[in-house]
Design goal:
It comes from Cyclobacterium qasimii. It is a multi-pass membrane protein. This is Sodium-independent anion transporter. It is found in: Membrane. Pfam families: STAS, Sulfate_transp. The chain has 21 helices and 9 strands. Helix 6 packs antiparallel against helix 15. By secondary structure, it is of the alpha/beta class. The chain starts with a helix and ends in a 16-residue tail after the last strand. The relative contact order is 0.16. The chain is elongated, with a radius of gyration of 30 Å. The protein folds into 2 domains: 379 residues, no CATH class; 91 residues, Transcription Regulator spoIIAA (2-Layer Sandwich), CATH 3.30.750.24. The strands form 3 sheets. The protein has a 5-stranded mixed beta sheet with strand order 5-6-7-8-9. Strands 1-4 form a two-stranded antiparallel ribbon. Strands 2-3 form a two-stranded antiparallel ribbon.
């Protein structure tokens, strides 16, 4: 048992030092993110920190993508704002539990594989939009609150100091790996800038200025809501949206990390892990969360490839809360802003600019549209959904024009229609226009050897063609249907009757002629 437990977390293709140091780097980056997202959701900063710890720990142990980091996220925080305002934080906890149950169900039903339906242009748009969001979200740190409580941009010395420290952080992260990769450059940058601020006695905003991160262990807490259908209908819409947003962001992040590490994670396993994590955090007073693309990239780039790095990040965050909060509160926000700027720059798919003239215009449109929806609406699920729908419609349109027929008359006077291309809802009109019942001979053969019937619309198209010939006393025969097309016609046999050609070796001959 001990050996099996060790093997589960034993680093593979990486060393212990990289895993631990990358985990600690992520733990530092998680603090301001969790605090900021808590404030967005309208809850205590400790709720966001506890959420990051619980979700990060459970998904690192049970998740389908080693090296990926999960925690409290802005995508979830934006969804729950209205729920907290209208009904209170206890309803939030209940919604998070229901959210987790929905995610577990998705994983059990093995629906995580649906992420494979997301086209590459949608992935490009999603990643680029998220990079822009991460980058622009840091601008709030360049604002201060005046005596009237109004946020305004920094000016003068505070602005120059902030910019200078951010620039130092970015330079260290960028160029230190050229000198040595013994320690993560992000961790060195944070520690260096922190020491500069402390020993230089520089007056700049720190993590402690945002909120105190001091606290104890998270406590088990049953959401204080009435167990009625009224409560269920209140939390269900929020839980469903959170579950969808959380899984989409998690599975897309999983795909991105897969590409970077050239390995493959398990989407269904990740769905279950995310669900278990959210159910647990709901019973410990958490706000819900999912995978974090920024922190995941920090971890992977710093050398974290295995479960150990995520576990270290989660436990490191809890350690900060319990014992080292006063020290972490000394970390300048400039260092973390510089780190997130570099994450955003590294996240953005700069290669997408190179493919603009090399891919179809429809792909470019999808890419840009998904990016814009992500940036302006901050709704990742909606952006991906719109991108997939548009890509699917473009695909259907292109395939609708691929249907064609080669016509010939054999020595027996029978006319053959050799069909090429898929027959589905988009191509039925073009399919029907290929036939000439009035001028065709008494018998025709429609050959589907190079085609297939895809859906009900395709079945109806075949029915209409046979009906047109039947009214003129002519017979239509079908040849070379593939197995799936034949199955569709068989299920529709009560309403659609066709004749199979006697010499077709693959199918039985139907003696009855077309009835409809």
């Amino acid at each position: 048992m001990t050996q099996a437990f060790y093997n589960l977390f034993k680093p593979k293709e990486a060393n212990l030092k990289d895993e631990v140091l990358s985990g600690l780097t992520v733990a530092l980056a998680l603090v301001p993110e969790a605090v900021a997202f808590s404030l967005i959701a309208g809850v205590s900063p400790l709720i966001g920190l506890y959420t990051a710890f619980i979700i990060g720990l459970i998904t690192s142990i049970l998740g389908g993508r080693p090296g990926m980091i999960s925690g409290a996220t802005g995508a979830i925080a934006v969804v729950v704002v209205a729920l907290v305002i209208d009904h209170g934080v206890e309803y939030l906890f209940a919604a998070v539990v229901l959210m987790g149950l929905i995610q577990i169900l998705v994983g059990v039903l093995k629906l995580g594989k649906l992420i494979r339906l997301v086209p590459h242009p949608v992935m490009f748009g999603f990643v680029n939009g998220l990079a822009i969001i991460i980058f622009t979200a840091q601008f709030s740190q360049f604002k201060t609150v005046n005596a009237q409580g109004i946020a305004e941009w920094m000016t003068g010395y505070p602005l120059y100091l902030m910019l200078g420290l951010v620039l130092v952080t970015m330079i260290i992260i960028k160029f230190l790996p050229l000198l040595t990769k013994v320690v993560p450059s992000a961790l060195v940058a944070i520690l260096t800038v922190t020491l500069i601020v402390i020993f230089g006695n520089l007056d700049t905003r720190t993590v402690g200025d945002m909120a105190s991160i001091s606290g104890g262990l998270p406590e088990f807490h049953i959401p204080m809501v009435s167990l009625t259908m009224e409560t269920f209908w209140i939390i269900l819409p929020y839980a469903a949206i959170m579950a969808g947003v959380g899984l989409i962001e998690s599975l897309l992040t999983l795909t991105l990390v897969d590409e970077i590490t050239e390995t493959r994670g398990s989407g269904n396993k990740e769905c279950i892990a995310q669900g278990v994590a959210n159910v647990t955090t709901g019973f410990f007073g958490g706000m819900g969360g999912c995978a974090m693309i920024g922190q995941s990239l920090i971890n992977v780039n710093a050398g974290g490839r295995n479960r150990l790095s995520g576990i270290v990040a989660a436990l490191g965050l809890l350690t900060f809360i319990l014992f080292f909060s006063s020290y972490i509160e000394m970390v300048p926000m400039a260092a973390l802003v510089g780190l997130m700027f570099m994450v955003a720059i590294g996240t953005f798919e700069w290669a997408s600019f190179k493919v603009f003239r090399k891919v179809p215009k429809s792909d470019v449109l999808v890419m840009i549209l998904v990016t814009l929806v992500t940036v302006f609406l901050h709704n990742l699920a909606l952006a991906v959904l719109i991108g997939v729908i548009i890509a699917a419609l473009v695909f259907a349109w292109k395939n609708s024009k691929m249907i064609r027929a080669r016509k010939r008359v054999d020595e027996e006077g029978i006319k053959h229609y050799d069909i090429f291309g898929p027959l589905f809802f988009g191509s039925v009109t073009a399919f029907g226009e290929k036939f000439d019942p009035l001028n065709d001979p008494d018998e025709i053969i429609i050959d589907f050897e190079e085609s297939r019937i895809v859906d009900h619309s395709g079945l109806e198209a075949v029915h209409k063609v046979t009906e047109r010939y039947s009214k003129l006393g002519k017979t239509v025969y079908i040849r070379h249907l593939d197995t799936s097309s034949r199955a569709l016609l068989h299920k529709a046999s009560p309403i659609i009757h066709v004749n199979y050609k006697e010499d077709d070796p693959e199918f039985m001959h139907a003696d009855e002629k077309v009835l409809k």
